[in-house]
Specification:
Helix 2 packs parallel to helix 3, helix 4 runs parallel beside helix 6 and helix 6 packs parallel to helix 7. This protein has eight helices and nine strands. The radius of gyration is 17 Å and the shape is globular. With 261 residues, it is of the alpha/beta class. The chain has a five-stranded parallel sheet. Strands 1-2 form a two-stranded parallel sheet. Strand 4, helix 4 and strand 5 form a beta-alpha-beta unit. The chain starts with 5 loop residues before the first strand and ends with a helix.
Length: 261
């Protein structure tokens, strides 16, 4: 597997259109909300045969089913998505599910988002604890939880050892510095995503393969080591338009170099 020790599965839903899909991540339609337990277990068996670990489960569905939506039915659907992710995680023997905590927009104020998101995670924490699976709250471009101190305090308010941060290095760079987030969050970080970002572009097209943007990887690695981080670092990248399989090989080499810093 190009030298990778593990990979993250992404659970999707057929015919879902949202903000993240514009990045063309090419989500796997074989792992969906409607997948049976037997179909999910078959994925686990395949990973065992290949000899590669399953690190976590992510999803872009919370851009569609936001935990902070003004529509209560949509918020409940977002909670249902997390619960299904946790159930799938138990079958797949992963220890973490990634969750976008909600969105602030012209219809949802910051205060409303904070309250609704906090309520959702307080409901979900019991499910996480019962299954020994962590919920990793990701820092994303959602106009919400915009500082590491706020992220840390929000997690403290949820009040569960099974709710942590899923820290994305590239997502921070447009408005902050990833090494400072790592310093503040420390042991609150359960998993890490990596991608690069070109600040000069300044929009969603600025996300780049590793070593092609403005992330100071030496500072990032120093910060991760200083807080004792010792878990998966997962590359979250858009496939090349031509020979997309080359992305895995290139990313593996790039990560080897980054880890040496």
């Amino acid at each position: 597997m190009a030298g990778f020790e593990g990979f993250e599965l992404n659970i999707s839903q057929e015919n879902t259109d949202n903000f993240v899909n514009k990045l063309n991540f090419q989500e796997n339609p074989q792992f969906t909300l409607s997948s049976s337990d037997e179909e999910i277990y078959a994925i686990y068996e395949m990973s065992q045969q290949i000899g590669i670990k399953l690190s976590s489960i992510s999803t872009s569905l919370h851009w569609t089913y936001s935990l902070t939506s003004e529509d209560e039915k949509i918020r409940q659907k977002g909670i249902d998505v997390v619960e299904r992710m946790i159930d799938a995680g138990s079958i797949l023997h992963v220890d973490t599910v990634l969750v976008v905590p909600g969105l602030v927009n012209e219809k949802v104020s910051y205060m409303e988002a904070y309250k609704r998101s906090l309520d959702a995670f307080k409901k979900l924490r019991t499910k996480a604890e019962q299954n020994n699976i962590y919920i990793g709250i990701e820092n994303v471009w959602n106009k919400f939880l915009l500082s590491p101190i706020e992220m840390r305090n929000f997690i403290d308010e949820i009040g569960s050892e099974y709710v942590k941060c899923y820290f994305d290095v590239g997502n921070v760079l447009q408005y902050s510095y990833p090494e400072y987030w790592i310093e503040v969050l420390g042991k609150y970080i359960k998993k890490v995503h990596v991608k690069d970002y070109d600040i000069s572009i300044g929009n969603i097209s600025g996300f780049k393969p590793l070593l092609q943007g403005d992330v100071d990887w030496a500072k990032v690695m120093k910060a991760l080591r200083s807080v004792g981080y010792d878990d998966f670092i997962t590359a979250e990248l858009v496939p090349y338009k031509t020979t997309p399989e080359m992305l895995a090989l290139d990313t593996s080499r790039h990560m080897d170099e980054i880890f040496k810093l």
